[in-house]
């Protein structure tokens, strides 16, 4: 299945949905129509029984941020600019809150809205040549509260201040040491190996449990949509779920569990 042919494409393999940004001539810079396509892909994924979403770019670019060609048009129409901002923030929030476990697979430029997408994912893998930056201050703009919160949760307040106030470019080893990425890979081949290993590891766990864990973490992370009651319910309900019954039985029988809906 495809969402926006040749730019934003989706493909399902077992319980994994791959969402790929493929605009190499623009280093995967995104215009409004591309953000809308990503939002549509997320809506489709949220309604599915898939367990994992993998978001990727092209060799050398995960996403370079906003499409400069469109930026000039948006600047001429304040309402269009406001609508685009709302679309970008809504899409990133959907990615953050989606029930599935999400993985950003990064090779190359990951800047602005691209880093916003990556930060909205649960896990981030990146090659050594990847570079990260958030540059609204260089344009006289301000990063949104939701975007800033994701950055603070990833790297801490002091490093978030450094990135936001200076717009500095962060290399991959530094990003790894800061916690901006989950795993640093030497090159594209190592990235593919790491992705496969991560999917295998996730495949040994319960998709329902991972979704509930995300609810608990969302509450701890300050997501206003998830209160303490919802986090408590996620914890308590798991004890009555089919996946716990299967997981406990498998543990006692010393076998691999086969969770409801299949493993990843």
UniProtKB/TrEMBL annotation:
A Gene Ontology MF term for this entry? catalytic activity
Q: Which family does it belong to?
A: Belongs to the enoyl-CoA hydratase/isomerase family.
Which organism does this sequence originate in? Stenotrophomonas ginsengisoli
Q: Which PANTHER family match?
A: ENOYL-COA HYDRATASE (PTHR42964), POLYKETIDE BIOSYNTHESIS ENOYL-COA HYDRATASE PKSH-RELATED (PTHR42964:SF1)
- InterPro entries associated with the record: ClpP/crotonase-like_dom_sf, Enoyl-CoA_hyd/isom_CS, Enoyl-CoA_hydra/iso, Enoyl-CoA_hydra_C, Enoyl-CoA_Hydratase/Isomerase
GO BP term (any one): isoprenoid catabolic process
- What is the protein name for this chain? Enoyl-CoA hydratase
Q: What SUPFAM superfamilies does this protein's entry cite?
A: ClpP/crotonase
Could you name the domain of life of the organism this protein comes from? Bacteria
Cite the Pfam families for this sequence.
Answer: ECH_1
List the top taxonomic levels of the source: Bacteria, Pseudomonadati, Pseudomonadota, Gammaproteobacteria, Lysobacterales
